[in-house]
Design goal:
Two copies of one chain form a homodimer. By secondary structure, chain A is an alpha+beta fold. The first copy, chain A, has nine helices and 13 strands.
Chain lengths: ~325, ~325
């Protein structure tokens, strides 16, 4: 696939049959009317062996944990509460033991228990070469409280939750040394972020419950890519200040160049990037402080072309969508 | 996977968080409470290249059509109306052109338009070797009208919709002669049933709208397998009469042995097998006759071990779950 974004554009349905549909293709998850209090949010994500994970970097339980986390992160980016998930798994006829496949489900279950999500269905099939796992997650969003990517307005604060760069740094360590290396404590922290990322469900809910206008996107492909998605969906220019982006404190042993790569283009941090009305910013900061979730102002939105500018050493340059290409360097 | 059924049993969640869940793992689709009038039904199915389809037997559009049909058939077996679908597709880096992937979506769209189903989301990723397509379908079922597999009772009529055996016969022709052979009209009919199966949405709805108690299952893995699922879910014995099972009229050129294999074990007919109260049988037949959907009595339910007996030439034998193993003979 040369350009996934253009390809998805070409698939956009030309008509819509159901008036209950609020948001189809083009955000983190789809949204449709449910009852009087809630809307339903649904998303699906696939992890492919040797594309999204390698067996030398992830235990089966990590693969399961992450396959569900990716989806819960999409629900977080819509401000939703996850309720259910379905798992479709294609397992190669050789190379995977039944007990290892069971461990994949155990990994999902560990995360599901934390967020009280029920496994309600799925499909188990054979494949010839690679394990492919697809998770569908279904949740609810309070009616009318929609944190769409298109909500950004000129003057908004751009923010990000927690720290960036940990997952990509963890992956680089795993690819260099494998899983059984005697890692230092800080390195293990980075690896943990890669193998068992934490979807920011509570952060999305906080914003929904405050009732503020906000645009939100989860950082699965790197902040460069996700900031561009916000800019494009909202038709605005986003300006980010590299100095303000919170780099994970355990990145200290990497070079500045590596840290920049991890922070800007290293995906799978599953933090949330968003924009909110400047006048709500103090209130948002207080609420996040009270909930003990780190949130940082990293830039602003202005009228202009849907592009992202990065200020670095006081010089702006265009931050393109390059994003994160899984294992590209290693192939 | 040695035994998918046993494996799925081992995955059954030990607890359930959401009281809104009506039916989780163990039927054609999951069901949960929605608003006052409807429940939501959701299912997911995966097709894997060289396992569920080969490029020499299916055009890209057929692959898409079938990937959605498989899911709509699951919704049919719950008596539901499909509303939405999401598509996750893993496309090999080599061997598939973008225009061919687009044709897969066109194939889905053809069926989606017929049943007014909206594509609302998905994921597009790379794979190394095989194309894997996973469709999640979401629909609604009138509140309380549930055609679960476990609903069978002693004395019930066992019925099947339309004809059986066409899809497997079509596949055997395609595997022998390929897609460009000058097939006779009857052969083309069988091939069409394999490449573009028709989910029996209307049949499921008819039963729901009549408000009769019925158990229902769609025939994705062959009637032998699906009848056993009904027997197990309901804890009853099912007796089928081979002579009464409607064989597809275009099967005439095959041997009796082949026809038996296609009809009993040849999956992917996507007809519905079900059981219903004997006292409603005349009413059901009339309703189906009026709707121009063929429905045939093929056996009965009785108390006893959860097994299926097949009467053939007046002798009963146990019909095991052998089902349909895709391409097993050819590998």
């Amino acid at each position: 696939m040369k350009d996934e974004f253009a390809f998805i554009q070409s698939l956009l349905p030309k008509k819509q049959y159901h008036r209950s549909l609020i948001k189809g293709i083009g955000d983190d998850a789809a949204l449709f009317h449910h009852g009087d209090e809630y809307d339903t949010v649904v998303c699906v994500d696939t992890l492919v062996e040797n594309i999204h994970f390698k067996r030398c970097t992830m235990l089966p339980a990590h693969i399961g944990y992450k396959a569900l986390a990716v989806n819960l992160s999409d629900i977080a980016a819509m401000g939703g509460i996850p309720n259910y998930y379905l798992v479709s798994i294609a397992v190669p006829k050789k190379g995977w033991k039944d007990c290892e496949v069971k461990e994949i489900y155990d990994g999902m279950n560990e995360l599901a228990e934390r967020f009280k999500v029920d496994l309600i269905g799925g499909d188990t099939v054979s494949s010839n070469q690679e394990l492919v796992i697809t998770v569908t997650a279904i949740g609810t969003v309070a009616k009318g409280r929609r944190l769409f990517r298109q909500n950004s307005k000129s003057g908004d604060v751009v923010f990000v939750t927690d720290f960036l760069g940990a997952s990509a740094a963890g992956l680089s360590l795993l690819l260099e040394h494998g899983m059984n290396y005697p890692y230092a404590k800080e390195q293990r922290e980075l690896i943990e972020q890669h193998q068992k990322p934490n979807p920011q469900i509570k952060a999305g809910l906080l914003l929904v419950n405050m009732g503020v206008r906000a645009a939100l996107n989860d950082i699965s492909d790197g902040i460069a890519s996700e900031a561009n998605e916000l800019a494009e969906a909202s038709g605005k220019t986003i300006v980010l200040d590299y100095g303000k982006i919170p780099k994970h404190p355990a990145l200290g042993s990497f070079s500045n160049k590596e840290i920049e790569d991890f922070v800007l283009y290293g995906g799978e941090d599953f933090q949330l990037i968003g924009t909110a009305n400047k006048k709500n910013w103090d209130q948002i900061q207080s609420a996040f402080h009270e909930a003990n979730i780190k949130i940082t102002e990293i830039g602003y939105v202005k009228n202009g072309e849907p592009k992202v500018y990065l200020l670095k050493n006081h010089s702006p340059f265009i931050l393109d969508k390059r994003g994160y290409n899984h294992f590209r360097k290693n192939e």
